[in-house]
Amino acid sequence: MTDNERVRIALANHTPRLTLKAAMRFRYVDNLQTFNAGNVFAVDYPVTDDTGLDTRYVVYSYGWHWPLYIKEGVQWYVNSERYSITTSKHMSQFMPSEIGGRNRPLGTPVPPHNTMTCEQMLVIAEHGIAGMVLGKGN
User: Fold this and answer.
1) CA pair distance 30, 10, nearest whole angstrom
2) Residue 1: what pLDDT?
3) DSSP label at 124?
4) pTM to 2 decimals?
5) Which residues of the chain have pLDDT under 70?
6) According to the model, what pLDDT value does residue 2 have?
7) Sign of the dihedral through C-alpha 87, 131, 96, 27
């Protein structure tokens, strides 16, 4: 069983189930907390490579096939592709304040973040940015 399969089983068994409003109100994404709020959920993947990072935090919309945001170390990755009106709404509702979300203080500069295709995001979620650079998703 892979680490990602273990994470998915743990999510199903131990992650708090919330409403979308509660997940937004209590800023689960800003606090990098795992949650399951209907069609949006987030998990921490354990990192087993040599990067020295502890976890890779991933926010998904409508299943494991559509990551919205990934935080690995200090860097955020953002899905640049659009799928539906609802997924676009999830992107704005759950955007981390660190990269421009609704809870960011006015006038605060937005730090750089990387936009990626959905396919690239899936590789990063599974193998990390180092795995994407090494071509592990191919």
Assistant:
1) 21
2) 64
3) H
4) 0.82
5) 1-4, 6-8, 10-14, 48-54, 101-112, 137-138
6) 67
7) positive
Pairwise CA distance, residues 13 & 7, whole Å: 10
Six token digits for residue 81: 């592709």
Lookup: tokens for 57 = 């935090």
Under 8 Å between Cβ of 59 and 94 = yes
- Are 95 and 59 in contact by the 8 Å Cβ rule? The answer is no
Are the C-beta atoms of 123 and 132 separated by less than 8 Å? Answer: yes
Q: Are the C-beta atoms of 9 and 17 separated by less than 8 Å?
A: no
Q: Residue 3 has what pLDDT? A: 63
Domain ranges of the chain: 3-133
Distance CA 85, CA 96 (A): 19
Q: Give, in order, the Cα–Cα distances in Å from 131 to each of 32, 80, 115, 121, 137.
A: 22, 19, 17, 11, 7
How confident is the prediction for the chain on average, in pLDDT?
83
Please list the alpha-helical segments (H only) found in 18-84.
Answer: 20-25
Centroid of chain to Cα 92? 13
- Cβ–Cβ under 8 Å, residues 47 and 128: yes
